[in-house]
Amino acid sequence: MILRLLAAGMLLGILASACGSSDDEAASEDNDAAAQPESAPLDVQANSFSLGEPFRINASLLPPPIGEQPLQGNVVLRFVSMASGMILKEETVPTVATGYGGAYRDSFNPAGVYVTVFYSVTNETDNALIPGMHVNGAFQMVDEVGTWQPAGIGSHGFDASAAFAIQSDEVDPRDWVEMGETVTTAIAFDISAGASKIRLVSELLGVELPLSIGE
Fold this sequence. Notes:
Shape: globular
Distance between the termini: 86 Å
Number of domains: 2
CATH architecture of the largest domain: Sandwich
CATH topology of the largest domain: Immunoglobulin-like
Largest sheet: 4 strands, antiparallel
Strand order of the largest sheet: 1-2-3-6
Number of strands: 8
Number of helices: 5
CATH class of the largest domain: Mainly Beta
Helix content: 25-40%
Strand content: 25-35%
Low-confidence stretches: 1-45
């Protein structure tokens, strides 16, 4: 009888210990889950997109125009094609250039080569957006030797993104895109003529688009 009581006591002790361990593990898992942010920062290596592949981003991360509040909601981007070696046409100059016919004339030509990436943007936010500021301002072009900002009035005397979008019959990136609207526009860079393997990168958004000259 005594042996039976001792055996029963040992069995109850083992069961209680097992239940306690299970509860502790569950509590630990709950604490780990609570410690994780709801939306972890994007990893550039894990968020590499291809031409034609759409992706959705948090619009509040995009750089707004001066004096404007950040957008709330999402923006869907899809980079659709790339063109290398585009030239500013004479008839486009008055629309996009500063100092037309003046000191900026020589800067219409690239220092290297103009590379233009065309993309669609869908506005799922609470307000209108300007692709040339909200989107283009978040991206750079990178290769193994350099990083380039979009070619603009400050560096070239004209807005290359606007020029090459207009010349390709796409929407001027300086125009407003209303809520619910989708347009195709462009972002243009003046990069080294010897660059081959290039990437369109946004460290701000944590995304990249591998490209190659000649695509």
